Amino acid sequence: MSLLAQIDGVVAMADIVTATKSVLFSDVLARVAALLALGGVGIYLMLPRGEKNRSQRWLGGGMATVALVLFATAFVSPVVSQDGGRTLPITLLWPLDKEIDDATCWTFHLLAALSLASAAMMISSRNPVYSALWFAMVLLANSGLYLVQKAEFLAAATIIVYAGAIIVTFLFVIMLAQPQGTAGYDRVSREPLLACLAGIALSTALVGAIHFASKVESTPGAAVAANQGRGTATPPDTIVTKHLAQSEPASKSWKIDHERGHVLGLGRSLFLDHFLSVEVVGILLLVAVVGAMLITSHIQRGTPQTTGSMGDRAST
Amino acid sequence: MQDWLEPLIKIAIVIGALQGAVSYLILIERKVAAYIQDRLGPNRVGPYGLLQPIADGLKFVLKEEVIPAGVDRAVFLIAPVSILATATVAFATVPFGYFVPWPGAKPIALTVAPNMDIGLLFVFAVGSLGVYGVVLGGWSSNNKYSMLGGLRSSAQLVSYEIPLGLSVIGVLLLSGSLRMETIIEQQARTGWWWIALQPLGFMVFLVSAFAESARLPFDLPECEQELIGGYHTEYTAMKFGMFALSEYQHMILAAFLAVILYFGGWHFWGLAPWTEGSEVGLIGALVRIAVLSLKVLAMIFFFMWTRWSWPRFRYDQLMDLAWKAMIPLGLINLVVSGICEEFLPKDDYATRCILSWLTVAGCVVFAAMSVTSKPVTRAIAKS
């Protein structure tokens, strides 16, 4: 540890302390906490507790929706930025950024709202099959968000692995295990109050952290005013984009380029930069597969055979 | 032109062409069945029965919609929509190449989503969502036979996704891309169709594609003998029509994938100026579409032919085939392809061809040995 690095660290610590103070005492975070608390109460009312209560559920859903809409659109700061003659009121999430066009912004917010609403429906459904379906909806919306961010491979992998395989297996198990309908313990949620409180605390911390990060990243001066209250940070340059930049640029603007590609960059990144991790994960998965096969063969051998003989066992 | 207008027109063309194609495929299927069984087939509506699809379509629309008692209404209505939607969305990346209306103009992509870098992966991702329609339709119908059909078919579809994914990796290694345009262009450039280099992969792909599109001999989702109609027993009128449409769309998609991945897409020998390169003029585009469509039609005819000449599988045989035959074969193909890519020069396709066919021969010999040696071991064990 050199002295220089230590000094750097001390300065950074001081930065963090002052920034934390400003975040803690800013009214933005207080408003966000209030909105998230409203949403949390709505979710609490939606959660299934005991006998069916339809009006309470609708009330909770309405509260959560209002909280979500306000969270995206309410003004968190009186600062108004000039954007090409237009005046944009500063909200926490809307509009996202000056660089992003309107269509992308709308798509993002629609998908994000769909994802959050589906998540709320998932934890508040009484029927496990419905929960699984809402979970699939959450994953679809999330992979849509990945597509908006141009992470196509991640989107496809999410759909294939989660929505296409894991949730189908969930459905399969639920349908096999409960052909007569749902059991009583599936109709009540455990510890709804504590869960909601923990959710409110976690989401407030998350929003605060993003807010804080965007403040620290922004340069002091003119950008501070514009960035105040913005909940989003610009995505950092990833290794994928680094590799994309390495391959040669297209000669003409409309020329179809095959050399530059998202999957190509991802593959290079995985097998050049993270080669060891990929191999370790591969070995881990192989061990898991062998273990699963061992367990099933053990169960088959362990079951008492009523009519089996040595010959039958050898032939199978 | 507006940015959003071009995709909308393409989507309209794709949906319209698919519906038309499906309605006439049903007629073709009945005609092929009649031909194989030495009958005449539908010949009442219009000349040679050519207007039969319109009659069928009217019947779908005009029949009474019955929602049985005790069904889970929301899920019951969502199931056919979801399966048809996923079957249609998968066609967004099926390529017909780029088309330059006049020299120097901006090329028009004859694909709904042309810049999708994940191409094939997108098709698989959307295809893997088709399970929901089957399993939900079976579950929500409040019918034990539907439920059994839904459960069986979900297991079948999920199982066969694995060999399907394994089988195409060889092609991806050869082409070096997931984009279907690039895969076709590689085959057109080299003059080798990947079926010659990936015979084992094609076999695994074909069997898995049959199973994924639930065609006979893998029609366990709706086996008429045991389960009446499987997951769509309780569906009537247009809701049943959606299931039928999606089944045929799955078949068309499987045929498209087989042709694009293994049979050179729009490439055909002797049509060199139109099949090479990525952008062509009007005539080139028409030639490409014609070649690709004819190949796909031939593939679909193969699907229908198989239906009437192959006995069905039992359920345990179906699962054994997936897990004990297709997945090991897919892995063997993957290992051989990987070794070829690593140690052979990039354009040495003849050696690859010989090696892959030797692998097939080895697999056949191994299978024959294990089949013939089975009774012997059993006899020894019994004694």
Characteristics of this structure?
A: about 325 residues, two-stranded antiparallel sheet, 12 helices, about 5% strand, globular, disordered C terminus, B: about 375 residues, 15 helices
Explain the overall architecture.
The complex is a heterodimer of chains A (316) and B (383). Chain A is mostly helical and 316 residues long. Chain A has 12 helices and 2 strands, in the order H-H-H-E-E-H-H-H-H-H-H-H-H-H. Chain A starts with a helix and ends with a helix. Chain B has helices at 5-36, 52-62, 73-89, 119-128, 130-140, 144-175, 180-190, 194-197, 199-212, 224-227, 237-262, 272-275, 282-307, 315-343, 349-382, and strands at 98-99, 108-109, 279-280. The model of chain B has no long low-confidence stretch (mean pLDDT 83). Chain B has a 3-stranded mixed sheet with strand order 2-1-3. Chain B is built from 15 helices and 3 strands. Chain B has 383 residues and is mostly helical. Chain A binds chain B through residues 129-130, 133, 136, 143, 152-153, 155-157, 159-160, 163-165, 168-169, 171-172, 175-176, 179, 254, 256, 258, 261-264, 310-311, 314-315, and chain B through 75, 98, 106-107, 116-118, 121-122, 124-126, 128-129, 131-132, 135-136, 139, 147, 150-151, 154-155, 158, 161, 177-179, 181-182, 278-279, 374, 377-378, 381-382.
Percentage of β-strand residues of chain B: under 5%
- The radius of gyration of chain B is 22 Å
| Low-confidence residue ranges of chain B | none
Task: Compute the average pLDDT of chain B.
Answer: 83
Number of helices of chain B: 15
Multimeric organization: heterodimer
Name the helicity range of chain A: 55-70%
**Interface with most residues:** A-B, 33 and 38 residues
Order of helices and strands of chain B: HHHEEHHHHHHHHHEHHH
Gyration radius of chain A, in Å: 26 Å
What distance lies between the first and last C-alpha atoms of chain A, to the nearest angstrom?
64 Å
Global geometry of chain B: globular
Please give the number of β-strands of chain B. 3
Order of the strands making up the biggest sheet of chain A:
1-2
Question: Helix fraction of chain B?
Answer: 55-70%
Instruction: Report the span from N to C terminus of chain B.
Output: 81 Å
- Give the overall silhouette of chain A: globular
